[in-house]
Specification:
Layout: H1 3-15, E1 65-76, E2 106-110, E3 119-122, E4 126-133, E5 142-145, E6 171-177, E7 182-188, E8 199-205, E9 225-232, H2 236-239, E10 252-256, E11 277-280, E12 285-292, E13 300-304, E14 309-314, E15 317-324, E16 326-329, E17 334-340, E18 347-354, E19 364-371, E20 395-396, E21 409-410, E22 432-441, E23 464-467, E24 470-472, H3 479-482, E25 507-509, E26 512-515, E27 520-527, E28 537-540, E29 545-551, H4 556-565, E30 574-575, E31 577-579, E32 585-591, E33 596-602, H5 605-609, E34 613-618, H6 655-676
Parallel strand pairs: 1-4, 3-8, 9-12, 11-19, 16-20, 20-21, 22-27, 24-25, 26-34
Antiparallel strand pairs: 1-2, 4-6, 5-7, 7-8, 9-10, 12-17, 13-16, 13-18, 14-15, 14-17, 18-19, 22-23, 27-32, 28-31, 28-33, 29-30, 29-32, 33-34
The structure holds 2-acetamido-2-deoxy-beta-D-glucopyranose (6 copies) and copper (II) ion (CU).
Length: 677
């Protein structure tokens, strides 16, 4: 049994007094409802408050029950709640006002916030999120990005893999333990709706003295979480699949914690909406947590004017500290770093610079780092240079992994885990090896119908995305809860070595790779997609993987030769999302000790939705914990024909007519009875 399972059981046994949901009748969840706003830095320590979960995590502190009510709605920026906010920014603080960058647009929100409420808890807490889907004409699910859901597999939030999508007007309760510390986030995993705003941060803290790099900082505040989202002024329908004559990239902007400004290209006028401001006390050291909650092909470069940054964790896993000037962050990745507030007392710019296709258009967003005692709220300095093409310092995680000495780059493969790596991962030969090529397919309108494609812009083609030439067609029912309902022919056929087989340019089937529980598994990804130098960020559910190697060729034989000849790191970094260099490769390993059906996919939303995913099935259905009673079911409805009741005919013998007559007769009797009284 793994240590975290044992640990969870220990917790259950130790703290199962009072509020355990297993005794649901005795719990009034309302008493544990968390505020939507985790509060600012001045009120962080609220020790007298015994129900607030966003607290200073103490070594002897008891775990808490953290209840969240998420109402999902179609909403808009600059509603009437905002009154005159674009001109009089004091109005922007109005309750229910979402102002974003001052552009008016339809969005989707949780509790009328952009981003949605932040979930911030301590290790060992129990999280309950009631999702109330009030979005007309949309189903939904929420995924807890980076959380393994070991023992609570049905909470992973992937429609048609771990649950049925939540239909409009219904509620679904997610319930799991915070038994991994680190920086995570939550987002809709259904269709493209997260691009419209269904995302928020999720932070699991532990006592500072238990954190491997805890000595490096003084404060780890709830408002020092930086959630970077991309933001399209165009409607979602125009964005996906996309249109022939509009370049999607040019319409990409960014928001930092849902805020920012934009400059209108035609008039040159800029909006004056408030920036996000991060406060620090001079001389103190702060832990910041950055989340790339972006959707488009553009990754971002983060920099803090006048400060270098000490990286201490990535994707919730501590690393040996390294000092960098910038870092590049791809969709789904998280980086935690320490900032020493030892510069001159004033305000500084924080810059999020669009990279990749967004670099050419100089798309960026700003926030403010303000020292207490600064004599102006906004920095007086001009906006820092982009440094996109010729960075003058150390860049962590640059695109194409150009990390050779002298190139100022520091790659993910140069990072070392700060905690001992599972020895099973470091064996010379893993139990199972998968080679997964990634590429594009351009559909032919003469013969290809009803494909889900994406068109990123006018100089591109309509495109579908695959692993090993397979468009991942999810089954009609989720395998986790309804594996018996899935017909055998929905699955892609598997070769004797376990890989899925496709002998055409494109196959469409459920790409499900079976893995024995406990096996050491190695995945080699080869990027054969040739368009635009995109670095696909791959994200795995249910696990973190050790990043064994990254390089710049996509030739399988060459990769094998390079990789086998290398002296591998003894402390390869653990991540759950990694960017594969354009035309290059990445090798990752897991110990498959978490049974379930886990998605592995490109985290660029439009690639994922247009086919670039597969599922790993770890163990057999009998290895799984029992599903909770009453979990909703779904599937196709295709009954045999010929058994339907006859259509209403003139004939009195029609069964429906007889039934209607009998109901009418009963109604009459009832009416008579009532009125005779
Ligand atoms: C909006 O605010 C601006 C700036 O304070 C002010 O000049 C203008 O009159 C206001 N408009 C309305 C409709 O209140
Ligand atoms: C740009 O700003 C100026 C000055 O505030 C204003 O006169 C002008 O109308 C604005 N232009 C547009 C297109 O909004
Ligand atoms: C980071 O900043 C400190 C203090 O300003 C400086 O001494 C150090 O050289 C910087 N490190 C890098 C890698 O730039
Ligand atoms: C597995 O077998 C398939 C079909 O024979 C082959 O194409 C593929 O390269 C093999 N994969 C590995 C990792 O050996
Ligand atoms: C598209 O498919 C049709 C029918 O199979 C075929 O005749 C045609 O050559 C294809 N076009 C391209 C560009 O491959
Ligand atoms: C990354 O590689 C792609 C093509 O392989 C290229 O177009 C792009 O310019 C490269 N980016 C950098 C920063 O070198
Ligand atoms: Cu991709």
């Amino acid at each position: 049994m793994s240590s975290s399972v044992q640990w969870a059981i220990f917790l259950l046994a130790t703290f199962s007094s009072g509020w355990q949901l297993t005794q649901s009748d005795s719990v009034n969840l309302e008493n544990f409802l968390q505020p939507d706003d985790v509060g600012d830095y001045k009120e962080f320590v609220r020790d007298s408050d015994t129900t607030n979960c966003a607290r200073d995590c103490k070594k002897d502190g008891a775990p808490r029950l953290c209840y969240y009510r998420f109402t999902l709605e179609a909403y808009a920026t600059l509603t009437e709640a905002c009154k005159n906010c674009t001109e009089d920014i004091s109005q922007c603080a109005n309750v229910q006002c979402v102002f974003a960058d001052g552009f008016e647009k339809g969005i989707l929100t949780v509790n009328r916030r952009l981003p949605g409420p932040s979930i911030q808890v301590c290790l060992g807490d129990e999280i309950v999120v009631d999702v109330d889907n009030k979005m007309p004409a949309r189903s939904t699910t929420l995924h807890w990005h980076g959380i393994f859901q070991r023992g609570t597999q049905w909470n992973d939030g992937v429609p048609m893999v771990t649950q049925c999508a939540i239909p409009e007007d219904t509620k679904f309760r997610y319930n799991f333990y915070a038994n991994q510390p680190g920086t995570f986030y939550w987002h809709s995993h259904d269709g493209t709706q997260k691009v419209l705003g269904l995302q928020g941060s999720l932070v699991v803290r532990r006592p500072k003295e238990d954190s491997p790099n805890g000595k490096l900082y003084d404060f780890d505040k709830p408002d020092h979480v930086i959630l970077v989202t991309d933001w399209f002024h165009r409607s979602e329908e125009d964005q996906f699949p996309g249109m022939r004559n509009l370049n999607n990239y040019i319409f990409t902007y960014f928001l930092i914690n849902g805020r920012g400004r934009y400059k209108d290209l035609k008039s040159g006028n800029s909006t004056i909406t408030p920036y996000t401001v991060f406060h620090v006390q001079p001389g103190k050291r702060y832990r910041f947590r950055v989340i790339a909650a972006t959707c488009s092909h553009c990754h971002t470069r983060i920099s803090f004017e006048g400060h270098n940054l000490t990286l201490i964790a990535t994707d919730a896993n501590p690393v040996k500290p390294v000092v960098v000037d910038y870092f590049d962050i791809f969709s789904g990745e998280r980086y935690d770093f320490v900032l020493n507030a030892t510069n001159e007392i004033k305000s500084y710019w924080i810059k999020v610079q669009g990279m990749g296709p967004c670099a050419l258009d100089n798309i960026y967003q700003l926030a403010v780092l303000q020292y207490d005692g600064a004599n102006s709220a906004l920095p007086k300095s001009s906006v820092p240079e982009a440094d996109v093409f010729n960075p003058t310092g150390i860049v962590l995680n640059p695109e194409n992994a150009t990390c050779a000495k002298g190139q100022n780059g520091l790659c993910v493969t140069h990072l070392e885990s700060a905690v001992p790596v599972d020895k099973n991962v470091l064996v010379p030969d893993p139990d199972i090896e998968f080679v997964l090529r990634m590429g594009y397919y351009y559909p032919n309108y003469t013969k290809d119908y009803y494909f889900t494609f994406n068109r990123p812009g006018p100089d591109t083609a309509d495109t579908m995305f695959w692993f090993n030439n397979i468009f991942n067609q999810l089954p009609e029912s989720p395998p986790l809860s309804q594996w018996k309902d899935i017909p055998a022919d929905a699955y892609c056929p598997l070769a004797s070595n376990g890989s899925a087989v496709c002998n055409k340019d494109l196959c469409s089937c459920f790409h499900n790779l079976k893995i024995k529980l406990g096996a050491v598994v190695e995945f080699t990804f080869l990027d054969e997609s040739d368009a635009g130098g995109v670095n696909h960020p791959l994200h795995l559910h249910g696990f973190a993987f050790n990043v064994m190697d990254i390089g710049l060729t996509n030739d399988a034989k060459q990769v094998a030769a390079i990789y086998k000849s290398k002296q591998l790191s003894v402390a390869p970094v653990l991540k759950d999302t990694v960017a594969v260099p354009s035309g290059g490769y990445a090798v990752v390993r897991i110990v498959a000790d978490n049974p379930g059906y886990w998605m592995f996919h490109c985290h660029f939303l439009f690639h994922h939705v247009a086919g670039m995913s597969f599922v790993i099935q770890v163990g057999e259905p009998e290895d799984l914990p029992p599903m909770p009673q009453g979990i909703p079911k779904c599937g196709n409805f295709l009954p045999p024909v010929g058994n339907a009741p006859k259509q209403l005919a003139n004939s009195k013998s029609s069964s429906i007519v007889q039934w209607v007559d009998s109901v009418v007769e009963k109604g009459k009797k009832l009416v008579n009875k009532i009125f005779r009284r």
